[in-house]
Design goal:
This protein has helices at residues 14-37, 42-54, 73-85, 93-97, 102-113, 125-137, 148-151, 177-189, 199-205, 209-220; strands spanning 158-159, 168-169. By secondary structure, the chain is an all-alpha fold.
Length: 224
């Protein structure tokens, strides 16, 4: 479930979107609201509802869906709550999150946070090399800050960095390339707006499409 960072599927082939939407609808219909609310454990919910997009263990195999394995528990909780409240919107995640009950959120977050994240792979070494520089140093000419300040070395993520208390900066290491790019673009356009103090919206708006690609390539293969 895109619990943490979901891509708008506007760029995904229409036939694929329709097929995935139908599949998820069937899953939700079969499982039902009562099943979600009274699931025996988070693993049951993950296997029946979340697995279609995120994998049963949180390691997504589809480039447009984020990997949730190893993502910080507090971050997953925030994103699920934002989806449930409407503060964060996505064509695929919003209707799924609407079926969840408040008591479902913490167990799901705890389950996915404890799963081991699979090693990712960069598909463009040259871009990844440039992305490493941008991630660690930023771009002084355009005012893009270094990502490392919040997301820490090698995309490890952090709790309460940069003076923002009680906010978790997500682990980005080994995340899907397409997903990272989609979220940066969504922040840049304002389509996604659940970042504190507008920090990601301001940062992403200063980035070029090329820089987004480079950072995504670097993070995908950076490891832990």
């Amino acid at each position: 479930m895109k619990i943490a960072e979901f891509k708008s599927l506007s760029a995904t082939p229409r036939g694929y979107r329709i097929g995935m939407t139908a599949r998820l609808a069937a899953l939700l219909l079969g499982f039902g609201m009562a099943g979600l609310a009274h699931a025996q454990d988070a693993q049951t919910t993950a296997a029946t509802v979340c697995a279609a997009c995120h994998g049963a263990d949180g390691n997504s195999l589809a480039p447009m869906f984020p990997t949730l394995a190893g993502l910080q528990e507090n971050y997953i909780v925030k994103q699920l709550n934002d989806f449930m409240s409407g503060k964060r919107k996505n064509d695929m995640m919003s209707p799924i999150a609407a079926q969840l009950k408040p008591e479902d959120v913490q167990p799901l977050a705890a389950y996915f946070s404890k799963q081991k994240r699979a090693r990712g792979t960069s598909t463009n070494r040259m871009a990844a090399s440039a992305g490493k520089v941008l991630y660690n140093q930023g771009n002084d000419e355009t005012g893009v800050p270094a990502c490392i300040g919040c997301h820490q070395p090698k995309g490890a993520g952090s709790e309460g960095a940069s003076g923002l208390q009680n906010y978790t900066y997500p682990k980005l290491a080994n995340q899907q390339i397409d997903y990272i790019k989609s979220q940066l673009k969504n922040f840049a356009t304002g389509e996604r707006s659940n970042d504190p103090n507008r920090f990601m919206r301001v940062t992403a708006k200063r980035m070029t499409d090329e820089e987004m690609e480079e950072v995504a390539q670097y993070l995908a293969g950076v490891g832990d």
